[in-house]
What does this fold into?
Amino acid sequence: MMAIRPRGDNASSPETRNVGQCGRHRPHPTHVLRSSSNDTTSGYSVYCSAMALDHLAAVEHMTEAIRSRVEVDPNLDVPDCPGWNARRLLAHMGSVHAMMSNLVGTRATSFGPPRPDQKAPAEGSLSDWFGVRLTEVLGVLRERPVSDPQWSWTADHTVGFYHRRLLFESAVHLADIQRARGEAPAIDREIAVAGIDEFFQLMLPASTKPKPVGSLHLHCTDGDGEWLVRNVDDVIVTTHEHAKGDAAWRGPASALFLYAWGRRSDSVEVLGDQAVSAAWASAAP
It folds into this structure.
């Protein structure tokens, strides 16, 4: 499931300038990626396909880091998820694990309800329940090749989508609990640039929210990574290039990744049309 950023009392339950002129740079080849809600292609991502790390090992590490922090103070407010405390964030993560286990484990072709035993307990510690959900989803995902066909709500219909989606979901919510505790998030740069790809090429096109208008340029300041994202006739078109957009975000890859998911950061410099920037910054599903 997507990295949900709940808003207020109506948040979903746990269940369910001269923009583009960013200084000296090394030109990148231009890769054009068109995405729409009815696109059934995969192999979408320049950066995701280049990831060398073990996705599920990274997931295991990050989710254990989330759980250990929640156990310290389950009632801690999580400002990046308005209306949520740490316990509810953990319940959400466990519910995402259950959803993915069911979809991939049964080769489902649509969403389905969780089993009764998969629902988070209403009271008490979630640690044991969360551990079962994590073990279950990791086992299910490891049983099938990443290239196996598998329905998803995005344009990527492979098991590999769920490996990457769980990785990025975990990275965002680990950052949420870290920021709530006053810690600085430390997202691996390889994960962050691939997560930006996934956001603009899969998650945003699959969202039912209205698409932002105008164009947005993203420029990593800590290494390679540039994107120009445009809305062309309600289709999100992403290119990897140094080009001018109506608005631009400059910053480290990890900060850009979190900014796309609605997590504000002083590490991101916003240039150009502020209204266009705000629309893209609030577009997360």
Summary: The first helix runs from residue 46 to 49. The first strand starts at residue 32 and ends at 35.
